[in-house]
Amino acid sequence: MEKAGRNLADAGLAGVAMIRGGDARETLADIEGPIDLLFLDGAKELYLPMLSMLEDRLKPGALVIADNADMLAEDDDFLRHVGAGSGSATSPRSSASTRA
């Protein structure tokens, strides 16, 4: 976490971005919106619960990146959610989803 924080500072982003370590269900439960960028990386089975928990705090046009989403089964609930009527567009090459 220290190195990630230094990287943010070095990039000039320390004032506009934050890194929270730990169980995301706890560390992100109290985060306020609007959220411009959500990077999901970790336990794939938590992608949908995390997105569902934070979705109403996403800024219109927010970028949601789900790392290694290509490793999920095609019928995974997360992929169905971001791909079917959720106002999202998916990019199979980058495993990224953008809220429209």
Can you give a write-up of this model?
α3 links the parallel β1 (35-40) and β2. Strands 1-2-4-3 form a four-stranded mixed sheet, with helices on one face. The protein is globular. It is α+β, with helices and mostly antiparallel strands and 100 residues long. The chain has helices spanning 2-10, 24-27, 47-54, 77-83, and strands at 35-40, 58-66, 88-91, 96-99. The protein contains four helices and four strands, in the order ααβαβαββ. Helix content is 28%, strand content 23%.
Low-confidence stretches: 94-100
Number of strands: 4
Instruction: Please report the number of helical segments.
Output: 4
* Largest sheet entry: 4 strands, mixed
What is the topology, as strand order, of the major beta sheet? 1-2-4-3
Helix/strand structural class: alpha+beta
End-to-end distance, in Å? Answer: 31 Å
Dominant shape: globular
The fraction of residues in strands falls at 15-25%
Please provide the ordered H/E string of secondary-structure elements.
HHEHEHEE
Mean pLDDT rating: 82
The helicity comes to 25-40%
Q: How many whole angstroms does the radius of gyration measure?
A: 14 Å
